[in-house]
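Revision sheet: C-alpha cells.
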Amino acid sequence: MPCLLPLILFLAFLVAPVFALAPEAVLLVVGDQHSAYERSAQLVGRVDRLRAENPGVPFAILIDGDSLEYGNMVARRTSGAIDFALFSALARRAPTILNLGNHEPEFFDLPQTVARLRAAGLIVINGNLRDRESGKPFAPASAQLQLGAHEATFVGVATDRLSTYRAAIRPQLDLTDPVVWARANFPALLKTTALPVVLSHAGLRADREMLTLVPEGTLFAGAHDHLRFVHRAGRTVYFHSGSWLEAVSVARLRRVDGALRWDVEQEPLKADDTADPEMVELIRQTLAQHLTSEETAVVGRTLKALAPADAARFAVEAARRAAGADVAIVGATTFGGGLPAGEVTRFAFDACVRFDGPLFSAVVDGAALKKILARANQGPDTPFPERGGENLVVTVAGEIVAGRTYRLVTTDWIAKNAKNYLGDNPPALTEQPTLTLKAAVITALRP
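Predicted:
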C-alpha cells in the first residue's frame, strides 16, 4: 500500500484541476424511473441541492424515457398523478427535456401523452416514433436550449421493438430502426451545434452503432437496459443512469485547455435523502387513498433492506432454487425497485418483481453456458468492451466446467426472445407449468 501512495497522489493531482474548475453548465440526467415513488420526492430534493451548490450556473434536467409504469397500480388508477406532479415540480425549477421511451404511453395514447407532458411544462423530443396513420412524428426530433454562452442541441431516439410498448397502442405506432434513423438524421442535427447531446432509449446494442455517428465531444445518454455506468471515448461521454431512481447522473460542462468537455458523475439517490415536502405529502396522500387492502397485505419478510440490484439477485436465486437448477437467468428489466427491511407488502413486491410468468428450463453444455454467462451481471465497473446484448441477472450454484451439462432456468420472456438474450444458438427451453417467477420469490420471502 505505501508503494501505491505516490501514484495515487500523482493521479489525484492530474484529475483535481479538472474538477476544481467551475462548471459552465450542469445537467441532471435520469432514465427508466418507472414511477419510483419511494424516491420521487428525493429527486426534487436533489435538484434543489444541485442548484444551490451551483448558483448562477445554467442548469437543466434530462429524462431519458420510461418515466411511467403501468405495473404500478396506484400510477395506473390515477393515470400517473404523482408522476405528472413530479414533472411539473421539476419544470418549475429548471428546463426539463423528456425523450419518449416505450413506457411513456402507459396511461394514454401517444398524442395525449405528449400533450400532457407539455402541459406539465416539459420539452418533449423523439425522432423515430411516428403515427402510423398520419406518418407524422409524435414529437420533434430535437430541441435547442441555451446553456449560458452555449447553445445545446438535444436529439432523442427510442427502441423500435414493438413488443416492449403497451399492447393497446401498438397499432398506432410506426417505428423506425433507431440506427437507420440516426444515420439519416444525426449529421444534419448535430454537425453544427456547439454542444451535441443525444438521449437514446434504444438500448446499448443500438447505441454502440450510433456512437460512431456523433461528433467528438457529444454527451450521449443511454437507457432502456437498466444499466448504470460511465464510458469516455476522447471528449465524447456515453453513460446510462440506472433505473428506479437508484442513482442520478450529473453532467458538468467545463472548459479544459480551451476545449469544452463534459464530465459525468453518478450519485446514489436514497429513500432517506432530503426530499421535497410537497412531493412527500402528495405521495403519502395518494398512496393512502388508492392502495387496496390486497396491495397493503404482507406477502413476505426480509432480514434487511435490499437495493434494486441486490433484490434482483435475490429473486433470480429464488427462481434457481425453486426449479432445482444449476443456473438461473432473468432479464434485468424484469425487476424494478428494491425490497424494504422487514415486512414486504404486495405493492412493494410488485414494484420489485415487475413481471410474472412460467419458468422455462433447458440442459446446457458448460462451454455454451460460459458464453451466456459472459453477457450477464453487468455492473458499473464492467469494462465497456465486455458490454453487449441484453442486460441479464444470473445466479450460479458452483463452478461451470466445459464438457459437463447443467440445468438452466429462465423466464417466459427470455424463452420468447432467446436469440436476443442467449445468443444465436440458444438452447431448447421447455416450460415448467407448475413454476412461476413471482411464486418462487414469495416462497423465498416467507420464513
